[in-house]
């Protein structure tokens, strides 16, 4: 009895285990239009997977590229509040030069609010710009593998149905085995 209860609780704690609200779900839909100044980061990344981090990103990008996961755009959006604005340069210095860090303008609509996001959230979009995962704390702590697994899942699977921008060349070399082997590998991720 205790084993099944523990297993059930563990499943409920998974970010895709049903804890998200089913009302007005934004999964598999395009995000609301958001801008940083005159830039639209989501428009720039059309055709590639996009990971929007509402935090200070780490070196996950480099690890995934070494594993063959390419054509992924990473974006960090700093909070709009005054303390965050004052620490923008510090945040930018902590993030790879290959990842743009956007500072919201004071008078613009808050991107975090538009995306229903909080500090340390990761929003992962497929190549067609549809939200596949929205991970918050504690699942967004990069020490754990939830963010990495969610990126790999979104990269390799059609979670939201067919995306015309996904091709066989989108898969890393590790996944260019026979179709039967690839399916087996995907279940191991």
Walk me through the structure:
With 189 residues, the chain is α/β, with parallel strands linked by helices. It has one domain (27-188): Glutaredoxin, CATH 3.40.30. It is built from eight helices and five strands; from the N terminus they run H-H-E-H-E-H-H-E-H-E-E-H-H. It has helices at residues 2-13, 41-44, 60-66, 82-86, 88-94, 111-114, 146-156, 179-188; strands spanning 49-54, 72-78, 101-103, 121-125, 131-135. It has a five-stranded mixed beta sheet, covered by helices on one side. The longest helix is centred in the N-terminal third of the chain and has 12 residues, at 2-13.
Average pLDDT, rounded to a whole number, is 75
The total number of structural domains is 1
Strand content: 5-15%
| CATH homologous superfamily designation | Glutaredoxin
What spatial order of strands do you see in the largest sheet? 3-2-1-4-5
What's the gyration radius in Å? 17 Å
Q: Quickly give the structural class.
A: alpha/beta
**Low-confidence blocks of residues:** 4-22, 173-189
Helix percent reads 25-40%
Terminal CA distance reads: 28 Å
Q: Tally of extended strands?
A: 5
Strand/helix succession: HHEHEHHEHEEHH
The CATH topology: Glutaredoxin
CATH architecture: 3-Layer(aba) Sandwich
